[in-house]
Amino acid sequence: MSAILPGGSTSTPRPARGPYGAGARLTPLGAANVRWARGFWGEVHERTRATTVPEMWRSLSDPAVSPGLRNFRVAAGLEDGGHEGPPFMDGDFYKWLEAAIAQLETDPEPWLAETVEEVAQLIASVQREDGYLHTPTIISALNHAEAVELADRFNFETYNLGHLITAGVRHHEVTGSTTLLEVAEGAASFLEDLATNKPLELARSAICPSHYMAVVELYRATGDESWLRLAEAFVRVRDDFEGGDDNQDRVPVREQTVAAGHAVRANYLYAGLADLVAETGDAQLQSVLENLWTDVVDTKLYVTGGCGALYDGASPDGSPWQSEISRVHQAYGRAYQLPHTTAHSETCANIGMILWSERMLSLTADPRYADVIERIAVNTLLAGISLSGTDYFYTNALRQVRDLPFELRRPGDTGLHPVPPPPASDERLREPYLSCFCCPPNLARTLARFHERTASVSPDGLFMHQYGGGDVRYETADGRVLALREESDYPWDGRIVFTVTEASAGGMPLHLRVPGWAAEAVLEVNGDTVEAPSPGTYAALDRAWDVGDVVVLTLPMPVRVLRGHRLAEELTGQVAVQRGPVVYCLESADLPDGIVLEQVALRRGAELRPRDGEVAGQRIVELAGEFAVLPAGDADALYADIPDAALGTVPARLIPYFAWGNRGPSEMSVWLPLVW
């Protein structure tokens, strides 16, 4: 398959999504109705288009770098050889395909259209007649080796099939082709047969359950209710299986009260269950999901939006007996268990929280879900990819230190499939390709589709959730039209200007999210101030709109110094700094020679001045100030006397957390000691 160079083309708008089912209050808008056209998110979108998606394809299609494409060619009989890479490589390949399809919708280019079509045909040629598609098993059969599907839960077959179905649905929605839609229906039929005839095998293999979301999307695309019934069957099968907390299958879903175990699996599961609620209106299940989400946000979510604190551990709730405690990994721990240096905070888990939160937003129209999406997006999500758009983190620590006396798993090592030991330097940097490649294409598809988190509609009007340079247009069934152009420097500046560019029959009510952190927000229409909106609400403007009307939402952005909960041990005596939705950190590259990270503290009441700056050539707003310098003392002693020397002072800057690690090896911390 050729690596065709990018070209240019014009976009063909696709129809707006149909309304969600009876359980949803909001329906999110897609690319036919909303785009990032400028500003902060416009720049991220352009970087994703111009760099991330094509560069990732170059990696996946180059067998010297990745077996992603080659495995499908071998499975199709086009090349000889065995399967290479982890067993979930197929799913990661499908995630890149989903990103490419999203880009084909917003920014179609000839090279991309040709590549997507070739990939679609290749995937279709590999699928078995019964709908099964898993290249490790198919390649083994071609090589006359033992090949049994679902032989090991860590073969990730249902994970792979779920991402295949999602990519197939999106391919049909964007191109109109049925090539991958038929593949998706075949894969769903295979899962349906498992649910009916081999429920134990299905339950045991249902880890990282992307297939819950996938079959509901298939139902929405086709209207075939058998796929909705299949999603319900997935829940019944899971509830009948005696598993463990690591896979969220020890306790039936309706009896779960806290989030435990593998954070990616949890967030994917709960996102899929929220999809089910949207179609069925299951109030009991919605209540369970609301409580679980609140448990995460109130007791287990990092200030950066990161999810899943633990590399490894034991389930805190599985059993009081040592012999029955189940191992967990890449997992949620106990409430307020939030380590910094050893934070796992996998990029895929953080994306899973976006998937879960956006579905809860659709169910409830509660802006706190949009607040969390924003917290994740402008902090830990963007930290997972370099400012160049080419390199990636698997884990997202809140502190990096020199000379760590033990090894943390490298970004590409899940522990299931070890990678070579790290180089002599113990600095953890982003990498262009990870042997465990789940996070990079997940980032690509999330950023390529991030415009879909911007706005929703309901009978009550148009709801704006995320700001950063978007255009939106929506027409109701009875012909009312409202189109807006957003101009802002958000998230660096809180002044957000919407201009009405089209209005018909008076348009529709407009609802603007006022983030929970935004005290004393001001709302104006055509220069007249309206009633002050409350933080953590949607400010409603119900009036007849005319072309040229201007709405200005001003969100004050003071520098905020945050403390942690009294039970969050690692936060004791430390503070984090946030301005607007952006969380800041201190990086050693911004300290003078002779001063190390652990010496720097924030003085209570110290002024931190927002000003334009740059990191690796990208504009940011940094926070400049005078910081306290603690006496060095004996850095190697476990316990040491505090030196009598007075505190020093050093000028330095804090940079957005997402921008750290782009200037070579460094130390970094989000939380800093507080001194008087």
Sheet with most strands: strand arrangement: 2-9-10-11-16-13-14
The strand count comes to: 25
Q: Name the shape in a single word.
A: globular
Oligomer: single chain
Helix content: 25-40%
Question: Rounded to an integer, what's the Rg over CA atoms?
Answer: 25 Å
Strand content: 15-25%
Uncertain spans: 1-18, 411-426
Number of helices: 15
Helix/strand-derived category reads: alpha+beta
Mean pLDDT: 92
Characterize the biggest β-sheet: 7 strands, antiparallel
End-to-end CA span:
63 Å
Fold and architecture overview:
With 676 residues, this protein is α+β, with helices and mostly antiparallel strands. 33% of the residues lie in helices and 19% in strands. The protein has a 7-stranded antiparallel β-sheet with strand order 2-9-10-11-16-13-14. The chain has a 6-stranded mixed beta barrel with strand order 18-19-23-22-20-25. Strands 1-7-8-12-15 form a 5-stranded mixed β-sheet, covered by helices on one side. The model is unreliable at 1-18 and 411-426 (pLDDT under 50).
